[in-house]
## 1
Amino acid sequence: MHLIETGNSRIGIAVRDYIRAFTQRSRWSDENLLLPGEISRFERKLTEEWEDLFAEMEDELGPAATEAQKVAAAKAIYKWAMREGRRSIRPGCDEPFVSKGSFHILADDLRVGWHVDFLSRLMTILEPAEASAAQ
């Protein structure tokens, strides 16, 4: 979220939604309230919708995009995920924190991101730590 210059209050909200979604999903699992593959189908739905918008963003930005343009486009993707990308995991379960937090869970797993260069930039940060941990 720092890549898209998100303020601390929005980061706090993201952490809250992440924790709430993680806790809810864990509870469903612990209490055997999930159908087989339900979480993975839900995550696939979220990821596929994100992929469509992310690919569109990549095309619109092009290779000559400035950092300011990349950040502005990333903020639009993030806003979509938090406002319009809300999906219900099942009928009757439409708490916004479930989909919002699930997007953050997917982002934490590097399966989705907001900034067009999120993977390459995060790999640059994470690889040195992984290399030194292996030594």
## 2
Amino acid sequence: MKVSAPLPRWTFPLLIEAALMGGLHAAGLTATVEGGEQGREAGLASFAAPAGTKGVSQLMTPDGKSLPVQPSADGKTWTLITPAIAPGAKLIVKAREGNASPPSDAIHVAKLGGALQFLAGKQPFFTYQMEASKVPPCTSDDFRHGAYLHPVYSPSGRRVTGDYRPDHPHQRGIFMAWTKTEFEGRHPDFWNMGKGKDGKLTGEVRFGQLDTEWSGPVHGGFTSTHRWLDHTSGAEKEVLRENWSVTSYSVKIGGVSTYLLDLVTTQTCAGQEPLKLPKYHYGGLGVRGPEPWDPVDKVTMLTSTGADRTKGDGTKASWVWLGGEVDGTLTGIAVLMHPDNFRFPQPLRLNPKNPQLCIAPSAEGDWSIEPGKPLVLRYRFVIRDGRPDAALLDRLLHDYANPAKVTVAPTD
């Protein structure tokens, strides 16, 4: 009997490293990944194992190529990176006995003090700054911040994020923060840290705890908790409890090395009071570019509608690209927005003076995060060198929004 299982829509199962590098008995199965009407670029595909199987360490394509597979903690779900699949075509892979050699771009994680550092093979990929980081000279400690991603690198080792820049020291790599808010009649600002009356914090997003972290031949990542704190009453009060789930992997797309980062943020009211979010032109997911892009003429932005930095500000889009030269090489980072996100296509704030963008749902009008109704937002970051390819980003958004269909059957 065949068992059909679509790719999990938002996150991938957490993994145990003991299951990644072998030690599992190969199961007799064949998995078929469908390209669908539009085809698929290289990327992740997951499937449920037939009942009674224990797992596999590698899969073989018809042309003899070995693909590493990464099992979930309970062994019931396996994930692999597929090559590109043409429209209407299918990729058929079969289980193979023996241990697969880890690929050269396997994801590794190491804890360094208050941060998690991720590598793709031997290349730096990104760092999750958990605890508040150290501020540079001449920057007030009021701006110290944690709970963000920085630095983030392209596959060639070019850094594509910035932190503690003199013009906006509160902007920090990849982060989440709301700006104009109302909570219990007060107005904490979680974005402009250090910008309240007398220069003190009014709102803060603070790292809570690391729940899980993992490495693997296919992907690596972490889950964690952040606490959103209101300081405006004179006493620290928790407003939101936020959970991050981040999955990272390295693929070749059109022969070009590409890093992909999936972020799922789930924000839940900490008590019985809502967080009201009045209309405002920024606040939400923020991305700050590196120092070489600071001069106003050194950064480029492009949206899914074809708009540039000037024409795209204040518009809505399904993806946005931020880039420029670093050490003589053009590189950049694109943010793909999942179609199920609130107010998709989502409003954009493309900063006219520095290399910073924001995906800002509040720009479209008043709204709120209500008790018992968590807000879930999903973003995929595409990091690669070269000029932005709008057609490719459209295809990658399609793959992100429409998980591959995978059919699994016992091998004859």
## 3
Amino acid sequence: MKLPSFFIDDYDSMKYEETIDFFMSWTIHCADEIYKDVNANVHESARKILTQLLAYNNANNLVFTDIKVSKQLKNIDLWIELKVDKKERILIIEDKMYSNIHNNQLQRNKEIIVEHYGVERSKDVKYALIRPDHTFEVRDEPILKKSNFVYFNLEQLADCLEEKRTGHDLFDEFWFNWTLDSEEKREKKI
């Protein structure tokens, strides 16, 4: 027997998108080089997740610094500005738990970014759509392609950690227990 999940209550309030926003924000912050000596295991795991989101092949020699994460800025779930090997990068994350992508939502996010940074700088922005499980709506594929959003699910992101728990209770609870347990529970409901 294990302790109950930190992220699930008896009411089952369905506030998972907010949970994902906060935990993704915290995870991405933990990838910053300033935290490498605070908890090396969490730092390294966070680096692997951020590496996937930014579409780099591996995290081996990458250095992430100056990470700034804004939640719900201009209705964008997560707006991340950071430096990768001293080069400025931007990552935009939209997450969906139970709802579908709205008609023009992803394209609108891109337009907000172009308006904010200008056309030239907006070419270097990475866009990610995150769902907590493998539920991928086939009808969303054209929308993703048109808007250059890359699809991820939390289980895929957790897979890059290769079940190497960090020893940090909250990190491990989210990335190993909740992410994987939630997938199993959702499958049982279907």
